[in-house]
Amino acid sequence: MDYGRVARAVADTLLSYKTDESGWKVCRKSNDVIVSWRSSSEFPGNVYKGEGFIGGSPLKVWECLKPVPNGLRVQWDNNVKTFELVEQISEDVSVCRTVTPSAAMGIIAPRDFVDVILVQKYENGTISSNATNVIHPSCPPQPGYVRGFNHPCGCICVPVSGDPNKTQVFTFFQTDLSGLLPRSVVDSFFPSSMAEFYSNLAKAVKSFNL
Predict the structure, then answer these.
(1) What pLDDT is recorded for position 69?
(2) Contact between residue 198 and residue 57 where contact means Cβ atoms under 8 Å apart
(3) In 3D, which of 11, 12, 128 has the Cα closest to residue 62?
(4) What is the 3-state secondary structure (H, E, C) of the chain?
(5) What is the predicted pLDDT for the residue at 106?
(6) Torsion (CA) 112, 49, 1, 69 in degrees, nearest 10
(7) Residues of the chain scoring pLDDT < 50
(8) Rounded to whole angstroms, how far apart are CA atoms 183 and 14?
(9) Residue 169 backbone dihedrals phi, psi, to 5 degrees
(10) Are 42 and 174 a contacting pair, CB within 8 Å?
(11) pLDDT of residue 210
(12) Is the pTM value of this prediction over 0.90?
């Protein structure tokens, strides 16, 4: 599989999600984030978009988000229990396994996800992570975890003109959790977990001495 080609296609997809305003329906608002959704064209579910501002430069915010083993994200993101490198494809492309804890009062069992991830840096200072599910021979489904599937998803950190200590953060979640989960559980989980994601990210950027 050409992992790099797959990952670069995801980056193009996320930029299209960011720029295409049509069809999004707001489902959650807080001081930190606006969460919207629309039907996914990738699988029979929804794609969720979060957009909000975080107090901190793009580099500081990215330090909390970047997809690396032993990174800061496992310390503050309640939906990431472990993050493992499966294979480093190139300097900016990797295949990784993410383990998530049980959620929704135990209704959602622990999951694991295997994704190719591209870290993309743009000339204007924007930094993004771009991921989608892949099959990797060294990482088959494992006992104790339901194998979920991320469709094009990721985070985009955009500099704010005139304010170097503020970052606009876009997030896109498009996840097939698999298993026999009621649709109502899935539909309520993502908006609430994304609001929590932004709140915890804002606290993490302030608390870590970056």
Answers:
(1) 92
(2) no
(3) 128
(4) CCHHHHHHHHHHHHHHHHHCCCCCEEEEECCCCEEEEEECCCCCCEEEEEEEEEECCHHHHHHHHCCCCCCCHHHHCCCCCEEEEEEECCCCEEEEEEEECCECCCCECCEEEEEEEEEEECCCCCEEEEEEECCCCCCCCCCCCEECEECCEEEEEEEECCEEEEEEEEEEECEECCCCCCHHHHHHHHHHHHHHHHHHHHHHHHHCCC
(5) 76
(6) -50
(7) none
(8) 24
(9) -115, 120
(10) yes
(11) 63
(12) yes
**Within 13 Å and on the Cβ side, how many CA atoms surround 48?**
23
Tell me the Ramachandran region of residue 3: left when phi exceeds 0, alpha when psi lies from -120 to 50, beta otherwise: alpha
pLDDT number for residue 103: 85
> What six digits make up the tokens of 88?
């480093």
Model pLDDT, residue 180: 78
Two tokens at 20?
């295409």
The fraction of the chain above a pLDDT of 90, given in percent, is: 87
- The sign of the CA dihedral 3, 41, 11, 36 is negative
